């Protein structure tokens, strides 16, 4: 290959200079202006010395030439010899080119700058802010909950980094979240897996980080890659919370994230909530109420005044908070034995509307002995459960059901999904049958003989998009409700959906529980962002080992129709080895947003519970 010529080298140098952007272009225009002014001034001094002398010599000529270059219109007022006027005219013509080019360069430079600002590529300069990496429908739930949690705080900031247009993200947040009050939301465009883009979020000063699973195929691969990028970056590492869609990827995610990451198993959490809701109507409503920031929340607080008391004695200790368990040396115990002594270093786990409302009652409230009913818990016998539709977490749901079911229970799966026919050989308590069925077909549903089942679970079919799957689920629920009404049958119906907006549409079906799986995970991520220790509490609640949430008939605890205080309900539950956390009114079961659930009521306020009402307790199954 031949050596580059001088002209090629010069052209290469010029191209590189011009490619440096607006500043380089302005520099070239300035150099051309200086050259033009110097050339015209030199010609004036040489060709028209008399005119130069009449205009104050060298300094005056340079000044006149500069003015004609910057303001070409001044040439109209020039006077002198013809060569002098011609030279000034040349300076004005050159000025027209230079000024026009300068205006164009500045306009393009400003346009590029505005475009960069629009894309959100500037660095976030905040302290103690919450960072969300990635984008999915869960971002709306998380932002909405954090806005509620920080409603009383000034200077709260949520920073979002996603591979989306900044304006599109802001528009979507305005549509789905609305006003954010005192909380500022900052959006930046970038890829969370790129270290340079992560640097935009000022992670060294962040309060916590949330990694979202993107929508689409293999979302866990994206989450794990983001966790790797976070772990390998230099500087401080704030606490990280992430959701993993598949249980099989949890080990890889723990290895990628390191010790600063807490992982939420989306499959496991949603599956357990669906199972618990199918067994006890209202469980999902109670869990959603505990997970969001608009109602009762879970707090952990050390209280030396309760040291030396037993757990049972401490249950009514707070006027506006409900004790539910203890945290001792990092280990969570919900509804421990009532004779468990509270030690000085223990943290009390409680439900309260706000941490400012947690204070000891002035004297322990007295229970109404004449209103307490002594009834033994009714043991659960074998039951028949029907699962309609199928998806990737179906096998996990069946295994969770097996852990709760009494020996001899039967589970039938009705679906035309190809993956619903195998993998049930290791079950202990359940006998599984698989039936081919189009769950959207009314006649196919009637042929199942629904009246023999105690529980029906309607899953979201993963062969369709989330929106289409929710539509098919709604159709199935409507058919089930109509069949119930026509035949006079009664069985609990629990449904899984993706979109929270479909809950209002599904209310017409009067399903016993509707689990919005994506919303549940979003709420849980928001809670853990505020307090990572709550992971152990919710993990305990969703586990079949230990105590869980049960709405149970109120008549097993207190006399129907008698005015009682919640302290009486607490005492009635304590005598059964349970912890009462609220109640549910049957006449409000279809009223959003709480659907009749009242958590953490005031200990002294009187109310009545009727035959169809429930007491919500923590108890072992």
Automatic annotation (TrEMBL):
Q: Name one GO cellular component term.
A: endomembrane system
Q: Its Gene Ontology biological processes?
A: potassium ion transport
What InterPro entries does its record include? CASTOR/POLLUX/SYM8-like, CASTOR/POLLUX/SYM8_dom, NAD(P)-bd_dom_sf, RCK_C, RCK_C_sf
| Alphabetical keyword list | Ion channel, Ion transport, Lipoprotein, Membrane, Transmembrane, Transmembrane helix, Transport
- Domain RCK C-terminal: from-to ranges: 283-366
Organism superkingdom: Bacteria
Topology in the lipid bilayer is annotated as: Multi-pass membrane protein
Task: Report the PROSITE patterns cross-referenced here.
Answer: RCK_C
* Pfam families, per the entry: Castor_Poll_mid (PF06241)
- One MF term in the entry's GO annotations: monoatomic cation transmembrane transporter activity
Q: Where are the transmembrane segments?
A: 21-47, 82-107
Where does the UniProt annotation locate this protein?
Endomembrane system
Q: Which residues form a coiled coil?
A: none
Name the major location.
membrane
Q: What is this protein called?
A: Lipoprotein
């Amino acid at each position: 290959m031949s050596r580059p010529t001088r002209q090629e080298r010069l052209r290469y140098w010029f191209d590189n200079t011009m490619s440096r952007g607006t500043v380089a272009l302005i520099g070239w225009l300035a150099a051309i202006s200086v050259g033009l002014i110097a050339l015209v001034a030199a010609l004036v001094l040489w060709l028209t010395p008399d005119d130069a002398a009449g205009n104050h010599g060298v300094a005056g000529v340079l000044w006149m030439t500069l003015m004609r270059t910057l303001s070409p219109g001044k040439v109209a007022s020039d006077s002198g010899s013809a060569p002098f006027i011609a030279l000034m005219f040349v300076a004005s013509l050159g000025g027209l080119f230079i000024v026009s080019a300068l205006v164009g360069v500045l306009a393009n430079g400003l346009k590029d700058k505005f475009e960069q600002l629009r894309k959100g590529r500037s660095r976030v300069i905040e302290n103690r802010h919450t960072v969300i990496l990635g984008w999915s429908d869960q971002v709306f739930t998380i932002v909405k909950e954090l806005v509620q949690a920080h409603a009383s705080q000034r200077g709260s900031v949520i920073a979002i980094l996603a591979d989306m247009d900044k304006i599109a993200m802001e528009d979507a947040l305005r549509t789905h979240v609305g006003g954010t009050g005192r909380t500022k939301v900052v959006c930046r465009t970038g890829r969370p897996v790129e270290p340079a883009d992560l640097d935009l979020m000022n992670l060294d000063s962040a309060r916590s980080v949330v990694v979202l699973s993107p929508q689409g195929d293999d979302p866990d691969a994206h989450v794990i890659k983001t966790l790797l990028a976070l772990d390998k970056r230099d500087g401080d590492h704030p606490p990280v919370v992430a959701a993993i869609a598949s249980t099989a990827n949890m080990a890889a995610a723990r290895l990628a994230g390191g010790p600063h990451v807490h992982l939420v198993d989306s499959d496991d959490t949603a599956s357990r909530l669906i199972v618990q809701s199918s067994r006890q109507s209202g469980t999902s409503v109670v869990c959603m109420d505990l997970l969001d920031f608009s109602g009762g929340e879970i707090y952990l607080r050390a209280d030396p005044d309760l040291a030396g008391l037993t757990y049972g004695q401490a249950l009514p200790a707070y006027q506006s908070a409900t004790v539910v368990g203890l945290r001792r040396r990092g280990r969570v115990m919900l509804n421990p034995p009532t004779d468990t002594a509270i030690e000085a270093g223990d943290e009390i786990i409680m439900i309260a509307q706000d941490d400012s409302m947690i204070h000891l009652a002035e004297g322990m409230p007295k229970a109404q002995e004449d209103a307490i009913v002594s009834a033994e818990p009714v043991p659960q016998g074998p039951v028949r459960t029907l699962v309609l539709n199928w998806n990737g977490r179906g096998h996990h749901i069946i295994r969770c059901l097996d852990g709760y079911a009494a020996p001899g229970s039967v589970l039938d799966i009705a679906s035309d999904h190809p993956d619903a026919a195998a993998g049930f050989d290791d079950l202990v308590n359940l006998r599984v049958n698989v039936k081919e069925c189009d769950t959207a077909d009314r006649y196919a549903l009637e042929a199942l003989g629904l009246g023999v089942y105690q529980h029906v679970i309607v899953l979201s079919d993963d062969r369709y998009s989330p929106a289409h799957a929710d539509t098919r689920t709604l159709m199935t629920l409507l058919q089930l409700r109509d069949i119930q009404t026509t035949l006079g049958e009664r069985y609990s119906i629990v449904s899984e959906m993706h979109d929270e907006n479909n809950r209002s549409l599904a209310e017409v079906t009067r399903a016993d529980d509707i689990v919005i799986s994506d919303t549940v995970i979003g709420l849980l991520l928001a809670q853990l962002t505020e307090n990572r220790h709550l992971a152990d509490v919710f993990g305990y609640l969703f586990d079949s080992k230990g105590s869980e949430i049960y709405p149970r008939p109120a008549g097993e605890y207190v006399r129907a129709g008698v005015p009682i205080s919640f302290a009486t309900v607490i005492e009635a539950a304590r005598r059964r080895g349970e912890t009462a956390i609220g109640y549910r009114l049957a006449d409000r079961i279809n009223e959003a947003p709480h659907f009749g659930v009242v958590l953490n009521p005031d200990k002294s306020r009187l109310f009545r519970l009727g035959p169809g009402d429930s007491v919500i307790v923590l108890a072992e199954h």
